[in-house]
Amino acid sequence: MKKIVISVAALCCVGTMAAQPADTSAQKKQEIEKFVFTEQSTVPYTSIKNQSRSGTCWSFAGTALLESEALRKGCDTVDLSEMWIVRHAYYDKAVRYARMHGNTNLGPGGILDDVTYIAGQYGVVPESVYPGLNYGTEQHVHGELDAVIKAYMDAVVSNPNRTLTTAWKAGLNGILDAYLGACLDTFTAPDPHTGKSTTFTPASYRDALGLQVSDYVQFTSFTHHPFYQPFALEIPDNWNWSLFYNVPLEDLEALIDASLAAGYAVGWASDVSEKGFVPRLGFAILPASKTDEMSGSDRVRWIGLTPQEREKMLASPQGPMPEITVTQEIRQQAFDNYQTTDDHGMLIVGTAVDQYGNKFYKVKNSWGEDRGLYQGCFYASRAFVLAKTTGILVNKITVPQAISSKVGM
User: Fold this and answer.
1) Which of 156, 203, 317, 321 has the fewest CB atoms inside 10 Å of its own CB, making it the most exposed?
2) Structural domain tally of the chain?
3) Which of 220, 274, 264 minimizes the C-alpha distance to 395?
4) CATH number reported for the structural domain that contains residue 395 in this entry
5) 230 and 357 in contact (C-beta within 8 Å)?
6) What is the pLDDT of residues 47-70, one digit of tens each?
């Protein structure tokens, strides 16, 4: 594929290499550069969507993965309804909440596997027939919906009648219907292969798109469970107790790379609370604060800065910086002390390098096309992805044989 070069001008100088008068010929100033990314590969993906003021990134990322898969299978471009997935997930989540007497998570969050689970159970529908905007706004604003569902279910599980009634599920459906829309038995939409107007059920539309949702599997990499064994990842949004295969860090990277190399997008769940996550400038990096945290090649550009200059760069990253050398221990420690949480779902759609040849992944986000320099996408460094990933969702056909055999897939 033809390489794409994206260039941004350098910013002002921030300091000198030594405490001597500036000499542009012999003592060049340290400069803060902006990134220059060269894309190396991309897989098919659809347009950027906007989750707006809703906690439904997991649904946007998961449906983006299904849309990408439909493209890969030769379908016309489709725009699937994220809110169809959200509506069914909220219902199933609330039922689980009741069965657990309110002792489990009930909120807008979820994980990527929720999308393939819901698509398998209830099918999929186009955005055009189920926009999920029945409450008077043009964008998704779920504060009231989230609060109403939580309050309603808390009233149910408090069991004021000393036994649950036969009406509470109908009441829950009434809330979801009012805010997001009633469920559809059939609808009319263009056939994804011929373009001819056709009547579908949600299940038949899923099948027409060629979506084999059971083919998707989750992986993670943590040491508090044995490697190559499945376990239910202990994050609040994993309400359905979905299983993840646990693999060493090098295998996690190999899984991402193998999927992209085969032409498949990768569902990506990650922590994005780091200062190095700068969507405004289109990148996510994991800067090192000490020279012993980085490889030798990065030290040269780092040790010439004063402590004050280092602090300034760390506080507000602007471009290439030395990054942490990520280890299995660093990942585990950050997860155990809540520095890495499952707070955002996205879609990895390609690879790139910066001007120093450092490896990056191209990421499709769900914050609208006007967010950042790259029309809603950004580039995440290898270090950021290895350190901050909580889980990935990939098609099992792309899993390398050496890993597949070890997990018993």
Assistant:
1) 203
2) 1
3) 264
4) 3.90.70.10
5) no
6) 999 999 999 999 999 999 999 999
